[in-house]
Amino acid sequence: MTQSTSTANLANGPHHPDLLRIATAGSVDDGKSTLVGRLLYDTKSVLADQIDAVNRASQARGLDGPDLSLLVDGLRAEREQGITIDVAYRYFATANRSFVLADTPGHVQYTRNTVSGASTAQLVILLVDARNGVVAQTRRHAAVMALLGVPQLVLAVNKIDLADDPQGQFAQITADFAELTRSLGWTDEQVLAIPVSALHGDNVATRSERTPYYDGPTLIEHLETVPNVHERAGDPVGLRFPVQYVIRPRTAEFPDYRGYAGQVATGTVAVGDEVVILPSGTRTTIEAIDTADGQLPAAHAGRSVTLLLADDVDVSRGDVIAAVGDAPEPIQQFTATVCWLGDKALRPGARLLLKHGTRTTQAIVGSIDVRFDEQDLTLIESPEALELNEIGRISVQTAEPIVADDYSHSRESGSFLLIDPAGGNTLAAGLVGDALDQLHLTPSTVPA
Amino acid sequence: MSIDTHISPFGLDKTEGEFDTLDALESESIHIFREVAGEFERPVILFSGGKDSTLLLHLALKAFWPAPLPFSLLHVDTGHNLPEIIEFRDEIVARHNLRLHVASVEEYLADGRLTERPDGIRNPLQTIPLLDAITENRFDAVFGGARRDEERARAKERVFSLRNAFGQWDPKRQRPELWNLYNGRHAPGEHVRVFPLSNWTELDVWRYIAREQVLLAPLYYAHEREVFSRDGMWMTPGPWGGPREGEALETRSVRYRTVGDGSTTGAVLSDAADNEAVLAEVATSRLTERGATRGDDRVSEAAMEDRKREGYF
C-alpha cells in the first residue's frame, strides 16, 4: 500500500493533510483497545519511549509480545480492571490525513460516552468479534450512531484469524450488518465491513494474505479516502453563524471597529451576502470577513472569523447570522430527542437550562412522549421518566427563542445541551426534531 | 460603517479555499477562547514562557485581534526556571502590553507554607500557590496549554475540565463533552480549566509554529551551553543543583524540547537553530518530548493521574 508515514514528509511535504474526526465503539472483549493501539502503532504515531514502556509493562505481566492495548488504557482503575471507563482521545496521522479518534467504552452503563464520542465523529468504527457476529450491542451502537447522524460506518470484523469458517462467517456478518444499517438509514456507500486481526495487524495498515475473499481497502486506506463530510444526508442548510463575542477594540487605531466573532457552523459566508440577524429578523449585508491574518472573500463551515456588517445593527452573543432565503424560524416550543445523562431521572415539568449554539436560556420539559428501548430497538409510549443513559423524545419550551434546524439537516445547528441550573452538570444531549421517528424502529429491524 | 484597513501583525495571506489540519485546529482553539470570553467573568492564561504557553498566547491574541486580549496571565514560578525563560516571559508581557500575575513557590518556601522536597524537585510544589492565586484573584476559567497526546492520563481530559475548590479532577465525574457545545457552568468557588490545544499533537504544534513564524524563547533553538549528563539527559547547572560527583561539565550545542523545572528538565544535543530546522528534527525524532527530557513523567505509570487529582496539571 502507498502509506508513507514518514513524518519528515508530514512536516515538510507540499501536501497539506486534512483532519478527520473518528470514533470507535464496541466492547473491550472484542479487542477495541488492541485495534486502537494497532492504528497508532502501524501509522508510527507511537514513539520509541512509549513502545519501551509498553514492552516493560507487558513483560511485567508475563506476556509473550507487546500488548498494544497498553498504549491506550490510561487510568489506573482501567488497567486494574482491564476495562475502559471514559472517552479517551487519540491522535494519529498519515501523509494524507490527520485523525482525532474518540475511543469510547462499550459497556451499556457508558452510553453517555458513546454519545459524546459519536457527536463529533465523521466516521465510526464498530467492532465485532468474528466468532460472535452482529450482537445486540452492535445493534444498539448502530442505532445511537444513526440517531447522531454519523455519516460513515466501518464494521471491523476482528479476530478473523480465530474464526472456524472465516469466509462464510465474514459474508454472513457483512450481510447482517448491511441489513441493519439500511434499516437505520445509511446508504451502502456509507458502510464498509473489513475482516481484521488487531492483534496481528491483518488489514489494518497492511493487506492480509489470510483473507483472499476480501478485495476491499485496508482500514487505514479507507480512513484516508472517505469523504470528509459532517452530515449523513446531502440536504445541507445554508449559512448559520452563531455570534460568540463582539469585538470592539475602542483603541486609537480602531476607534469604530465592531466585529462579530464566531465559527461558521454550516454553509458559507461571502463578502456582499445579504444576511438576516436572528431572532430579531434585521437584514444587512456582509461588509468584510476579518481574521488576524487579513481579510477573506469567503469562509466555509469550521472556520473561525470575524464578520463586519454594512449597517449599524444590534447584534450580541447568542444571535445567529443566517443566509436570507434559507433562514430558520426562531422556535420556543419544539420536539426533541434526548439522551439523558443525569443520575436523577428526567420527569415531565423539569426546569432546566438549555444551551444551543452560543445561547443559554431557561427551559421546561413538557412531556416525555416515547422512550427508545435499546434492548429490542422499539419505542415505548409515554414512559414515566427517562433514567440515566436512556434515550427518548420530549417536548421542550424555552424562555427565549432559539435559532435551530432539525438535527437531520444539521448536526451543528440542531444540537443542544440540557444543563442543571443548580450544579451546572450537563444532563442531556439534545437533538432538535424527531430523530427517533426517522430511525423507523420496529421489531423487524432486528435480524433473526 | 467604514472598515478600518489594517496591516495585521500575523499577516499570513491565506486563501479561503485551503483548510488543512492546522487551519482546523487553529479555528477550534480560537472558538474555545471566544467561548470562554463570552461565558466567564475572570479568565486567566497560565503563561510560563514555554513553547505551549507561547502558542496559547499567540492563538488568544489572534482570537480577539484587533482588540486587546481580554484576559490576564498567570505564572506559577518555581524559582527553578532558567533565567532566559523569565527574561522571555517579561519581554512578551511588555511587547503585548499584558497583565502578568506571578505566584512564587520561593515565597511559600521562605515563609514555611511549603517545604522543599528531599529530591529538590519543585514542579509538584506548584499546586498550592496556583490554587491560592486562583482563589485570591477569583479566576473562574484558567487556560492551560496541555495537550491530550502528551500522556495517557491526559487522553481522557476534557476541553473544559471542572475543578472543585481544591482544584481536584475526578476522572469519573467529568462532564460529557458533546458536539462543540462547551458547558462552563460552575458553582461559586469552583473553576474550569480550559485546554484550547487539546487536539494538537507535538508535530502539529511545531508545524504551526514554523508556518506562523511564532517566536519562542531562545532555549528552544540550538545554542552552545555548559551542560552535564544525567540519566541520559543534558542538564544545566543552577540553584537546583548539579553537577554531582562524577558528572562532568562540558560545552555542547543543545536545545530544549520542553522547558520546566531546571532540576528535572534536560536539553538534547542539536544543531537546529531555527523553526524549520527544529521541525525537521522533531518530525524525525524517535522519542516523544516528555520521554526524552522530562524526568518527572518517568516516576510511575500513574504519576500524572495522581498529580491531576491533587490539582496539578
From TrEMBL, chain A:
InterPro entries: CysN_GTP-bd (IPR041757), CysN_II (IPR044138), CysN_NoDQ_III (IPR044139), G_TR_CS (IPR031157), GTP-eEF1A_C (IPR054696), P-loop_NTPase (IPR027417), SO4_adenylTrfase_lsu (IPR011779), T_Tr_GTP-bd_dom (IPR000795). Its EC number is 2.7.7.4. GO terms for biological process: sulfur compound metabolic process. CDD domains: CysN_ATPS, CysN_NodQ_II, CysN_NoDQ_III. SUPFAM superfamilies: EF-Tu/eEF-1alpha/eIF2-gamma C-terminal domain (SSF50465), P-loop containing nucleoside triphosphate hydrolases (SSF52540), Translation proteins (SSF50447). Keywords: ATP-binding, GTP-binding, Nucleotide-binding, Nucleotidyltransferase, Transferase. One of its GO terms (molecular function) is GTPase activity. Gene3D superfamilies: P-loop containing nucleotide triphosphate hydrolases (3.40.50.300), Translation factors (2.40.30.10). It is an enzyme of class 2 (transferase). The keyword ATP-binding applies. Pfam families: GTP-eEF1A_C (PF22594), GTP_EFTU (PF00009). Residues 17-237 form the Tr-type G domain. PANTHER family: TRANSLATION FACTOR (PTHR23115). This is sulfate adenylyltransferase. It comes from Gordonia crocea. The lineage of its organism: Bacteria, Bacillati, Actinomycetota, Actinomycetes, Mycobacteriales.
